[in-house]
Amino acid sequence: MDATTGIYGAETHEDGHPPPHPHRYALRIVRNVLLAVVAGVFAIWLVLFVTKGRFLKHPFERIATSLADRKISVGGDFQLYFAPLRIKFVAEGLQVANPAWAGQPNLFSARRIDARIAPLSLLFGRRHIYTLDLDQGAADLEWDARHQSNTWTFGMPGKGKPLEMPRIDRATVIGTRIRYLDPRMQVVANLEVDPITSTNARIGKAVAVRGDGTLRKTPFRVNARLLSPDETIGRGENALQLRAWAANNVIDVSGKLPSISDVENVPLHVRAQGRDLSDLLSIIDVTIPHTRRYALTAQLVKDDVRYRFTGMSGRFGNSDLAGTLTVTNGERLRLDSALKTRQLDIVDAAPFIGYNPDIVAAKGAVAAAAATGAGPRNVLPDARLPVDAMQRFDAALTWQIGVVRSRNVPVQDISLKLTLDRGRLALSPLTFSMARGTVSSDLIFDTRRRPSAVSYDIRLSPTPMGRLLAGYGVAQSGTTGSIKGRIKLEGRGDTIHDSLASSSGRIAFVMPQGTLWTQNAQLAELDIGTFVTKMFEGKLKKPIEINCGLVGFTVRNGIAAADPILIDTSRNVVTGRGGFSFDSEAVDLAFRADGKKFSLFSGQSPVGVRGHFADPSLDVISPQLIGRAGAGLGLAVLATPVAGLLAFVDIGDAKSAACGPVLAGAGAAAQRTTSGKPRKDVGNGRAGKID
Asked: What is the structure's pLDDT at 520?
């Protein structure tokens, strides 16, 4: 027998000792296993320490590629071992691939990474890195064309997770470069990050970034500062300041982002300044009239494809500007804005009709017109409409303007509604107050038709002439007459000059019953006898009555012909003939006044207005006047000097006008005398050739 039973019945071995207790046997097994595990771990540690874990390079690449669903490779030295209890990781030429759709091969690459990592953090909680030295790191942050996926989010689109930043106690990062691409915004940025050093998981100072790039093919430079790098690493707020230079503009952006790459629905403070606001908007292919130097501030919020600028305020030239602007970067670029201006300087308004405001301010309108390509004596701008740009984007604008600062034009309360739809620009309605009257207009520029189809419809409500002409030296006292009118023209052309030079339509201004200073009326009528008499009597400012008046033109192919010019006063009937050309801007008009009562020393000859829009001249020495002077001289020689006065006597046979057709703005053919007879002394709507 191997064992015997003792006197107490206990089992014993042959040597007489009892067998080991089962618990002690189990403990021995556990001890041996632990010793084996420790020995195995030590052996692994020793092997890794001796070999630096270099043999794990390919398994690391394979496992990391599988976990990240991205190809990860190490081109140079690789180390992965415990030193002594922390994991040491060294990789030279590390590359993390981009998705297949990206334009660059790698999301991240680095010349060398040297890190000490807490082992258990790889299994539990947030990754913890004790030290990190990163040399020549390069990151490619790119959105896809549909703006649904980006390179820094791992996994399936819509289900992936962005790369999380680990906790890093101490770091030295040098030579970092970042490329950012957003095809929807058409922006590419190449950035360099200043060296970063952190201690005790804190960087402690702002991180500076600088670089350049393009936005819709416009080059730019940028300097940025991440003011809260420690919070950024800790997934807290990201306080950012940025300044960019592009197309002679300076743009400042500041704010706090929820993550370093997330600007959705985040309010940012924006300030832009430069020499011309049109240069800024041209970056996004939006064309507006030129402006003088500007400075604007606003709050920017990005909401998917919309960029909303609210609380906008600032100045351009000598004018103020406030309001809102929304840029929608959808299938078609679109601008929606509501603007307000308290005071608009008349020079700042010059670009709205094609003038350069700086040239207007320095040299005047004629020089500004010449700068657009117009002739040396022309004032109509010849700047071409930006047809291609107008067909690339759409817009809707409302603009309220309080007062226009001008020495001669009393304009205020401007209300403008603008719509641009695939190349058709409508300023409708455009209204403003002028000298207690109202101008309402509808202007259409349809660039979808070639050349552009342009229509002008401008309506002037009854406006006091005294206040309207006050800026030109006409006093208001004693002038109660008013004027109303309409300009309705249609033409073809890609410039204001060309569209008017080819236009046809009608221009008519009607003067209902009122009064004018005798001084003004008599000078226009050249009734020297009445003028001199009143001057000696001291009644120069005594008003005379206007029964009715009409200054009308029929326009054909850019030539405006008087149709008719007819003003009936208590003393005279003033008529006019001739016209002007929108093409050459030449003027050839003749006005004649016939007295209703006897008047001595009345010239009774036409007063000519000739020249061009830019430099009209008054011709009071006409052939008729010279002829009458010659007749008077002949009578004086043949008879007596007193007889010479007879040549200047107006017998007062002018026929009063029937005011009905006049007040209706009717053409010359409809005009009648008070007795109902057709008038033959007014223009017939034909001006002949005007050079």
From this structure: 47
- Give a yes or no: residue 636 inside a domain: yes
Burial of 676 (0-12, 13-18, 19+ CB in 10 A): exposed
- φ, ψ for residue 443, nearest 5 deg: -120, 130
Q: What is the pLDDT of residue 503?
A: 94
Q: In sequence order, what are the beta bridge partners of 276?
A: none
Task: Point out the domain boundary residue: 338, 359, 381.
Answer: 381
Q: Is 280 part of any domain?
A: no
Asked if 110 contacts 137 with a C-beta cutoff of 8 angstroms, the reply is yes
Would you say 480 and 524 are in contact if contact means Cβ atoms under 8 Å apart?
no
Q: What span, in angstroms and rounded, lies between the C-alpha atoms of 231 and 239?
A: 9
Give the structural domain span for 121: 53-274
Residue 524: strand, helix, or coil? helix
- Structural tokens at position 158: 């819509």
Residue 491: the pLDDT is 95
Residue 30 shares a structural domain with residue 140:
no
Q: Give the separation between CA 210 and CA 178, rounded to whole angstroms.
A: 10
How many Å apart are CA 264 and CA 306, to the nearest integer? 10
Residue 378 tokens, joined: 């022309």
Beta partners for residue 301, in sequence order: 308
pLDDT tens by residue, 470-506: 555 445 556 677 788 889 999 999 988 899 999 999 9
Identify whether residues 108 and 167 lie together within a single domain: yes
Domain count, the chain: 4
Could you write out the DSSP letters of every residue in 194-208? PPEEEBTTB--SPEE
Q: Is the peptide bond before 84 cis (omega within 30 degrees of 0)?
A: yes
For the stretch 159-189, pLDDT in tens is: 545 556 667 778 889 999 999 998 888 899 9
φ, ψ of residue 225 in degrees (nearest 5):
-135, 125
3-state SS class at 595:
strand
Q: Is residue 685 part of a domain?
A: yes
pLDDT, one tens digit per residue, over 605-644 is 567 778 887 777 766 555 554 454 454 445 444 444 444 4
Contacts 24+ apart (CB under 8 A), 111-117: 111/135, 111/136, 111/137, 111/175, 112/76, 112/136, 113/89, 113/137, 114/88, 114/89, 114/90, 115/88, 115/89, 115/90, 116/83, 116/86, 116/87, 116/88, 116/89, 117/86, 117/87, 117/88, 117/89
pLDDT of 645 above 80: no
Integer angstrom CA distances of residue 627 from 72, 75, 559, 608, 686: 104, 106, 31, 16, 26
Query: Is the same domain home to 112 and 248?
Result: yes
Helix (H, G, I), strand (E, B) or coil at 298: strand
CB-based contacts of 26-30 (< 8 A; 24+ apart in sequence): none
Strands (E), 467-585: 482-492, 504-511, 514-517, 543-556, 559-569, 572-581
Element (H, E) at 230: helix 229-233
SS (H, E, C) 115-129: EEECHHHHCCCCCEE
**CA–CA distance, 290 with 356 (Å, rounded to integer):** 7
Which comes out higher in pLDDT, residue 423 or 232?
423
Q: Where does a domain end: 257, 274, 291?
A: 274
Q: How confident is the model at residue 461 (pLDDT cuts 50, 70, 90)?
A: confident
